[in-house]
Amino acid sequence: MKIIIIDDDCLVAGALKTILEVNEDVEVLATGADGKEACELYERYEPDVLLMDIRMEKMDGLEASRSILSRYPKANILLLTTFSDDEYIVKALRLGAKGYLLKQDYGSILPALRAVYCGQTVFGTEIVSRIPDLLQGEKKFDYGKYDINEREFEMIELIANGYSNKEIAAELFLSEGTVRNYLSLILEKLQLRDRTQVAVFYYQHK
Predict the structure, then answer these.
(1) Residue 164: half-sphere exposure toward Cβ, Cα within 13 Å
(2) How confident is the model at residue 129, as a pLDDT?
(3) Comparing C-alpha atoms, which of 72, 126, 112, 115 is closest to residue 96?
(4) DSSP type of residue 147
(5) Which long-range contacts link 29-32 to residues 24+ away (Cβ below 8 Å)?
(6) How many CB atoms lie within 10 A of CB 13?
(7) What is the pLDDT of residues 168-190, one digit of tens each?
(8) Contacts of 4 by beta carbon, 8 Å cutoff, 6+ apart
(9) Is the distance from CB of 76 to CB of 30 less than 8 angstroms?
């Protein structure tokens, strides 16, 4: 199992390297100190797992994860931090990170690396217990404040998915004239110019 370690504290990176390389099945290919180095080292070595701190200067671990995963969608990234901020956990989940552990839980790092290497997603015990609440607690955009009703929202979704007025009429069992009237109302309520802007608005607030 080939690993890269990224941490802006060189002592932590060195300690992790020493701890992990005691195991014969683990090889630390390189260490780095920020997200920019993480991107460069990942491209150079394409490791089995990237073990990376989240809070770093220049480029943090989440930014680096986003950049790496955009180019290497199958990258295995295990994030480490001393913080268990809700915002970081949700962002890590959305990005597609394969794990998120607290640094102080050293005993879990090697098992987590092995699990991620085998294709599993791993989150520390303290974090796992909070994930359902975090995801349920995410705020959805409130179309109600624009006075958009359920039927109008259905239409917005169809527009965003590229449906023509004729196709929307067939899907919602309406006449094309009624669809045009709805579209005019939607444009007025959202203060938009055309259906393209409706689609953009939908994806911006999804």
Answers:
(1) 2
(2) 61
(3) 72
(4) T
(5) 29/2, 29/3, 29/4, 30/4, 30/5, 31/4, 31/5, 31/6, 31/7, 32/4, 32/5, 32/6
(6) 20
(7) 999 999 999 999 999 999 999 99
(8) 28, 29, 30, 31, 32, 38, 41, 42, 45, 47, 49, 50, 51
(9) no
